[in-house]
């Protein structure tokens, strides 16, 4: 039977793959956007006033940005080293789509891509020009000019059948797109695999878009189902599972991040379930990509190592992205 040899969780935000001196480029967009924080929506100026006692201005100096960018890049390199050292034959990536391949016409709660190829080309010039400046210049960190990678149809179909048997209604995707792959997956291909892409099964969670966002508890149970499916697959493959996304953003909440990391370390997500679904909206919703992998690791009993946690603020309102990098290995290792 196949064997899961490694679990990982990584953030994938644009600040990780853009020079620190450009981190403020998205602030003009932040100023005109309403933001989810502590279970409700806020205007930018309301957040500035609410968080004034945190002295966030000290977190957005050029020197602080350089320091935190260097921390993140070091963590990414360590994650890449650990992944390469595990020598997986197959990787299962749990991520989400942000209207890169789906549209409002159809957004599945859960999905698994079971096709033979994954196309990850650079997006069109027209699409690039529609992106906020702080996102546009990050695209090469997710996408080469053109690349095609191997899927793993046999494992993907086995996961789908097993999940259906476990009462999860999973969309079966024959392909992602004719031209591009969501950045949740492209980040892993480019930054952790260094373009030496291992055959991959993409798993989707609809974290962002109401009304069919699965609950945190449902995501955890889905992960446990995937773990059982992988380890019952008739193959001698070594499998790594990777969560891509999070942590709290577009407004950083270090309390929430630390609560979640501690719960995952202890294999007890009860405090995470108790947070309620209102916390897991907007960018913070991507933590729901980590929850299935945490469910897999709970099923297997692997120990978690935190490579780093780096809150990357870009404004005095607390906007930015909290970056997390963790891995799980069997206790014997």
From TrEMBL:
Pfam families: LigB. Its EC number is 1.13.11.16. SUPFAM superfamilies: LigB-like. The keyword Oxidoreductase applies. Residues 72-299 form the Extradiol ring-cleavage dioxygenase class III enzyme subunit B domain. GO terms for molecular function: 3-carboxyethylcatechol 2,3-dioxygenase activity; ferrous iron binding. It comes from the Bacteria. Keywords: Dioxygenase, Oxidoreductase. This is 2,3-dihydroxyphenylpropionate/2, 3-dihydroxicinnamic acid 1,2-dioxygenase. It comes from Paraburkholderia fynbosensis. The lineage of its organism: Bacteria, Pseudomonadati, Pseudomonadota, Betaproteobacteria, Burkholderiales.
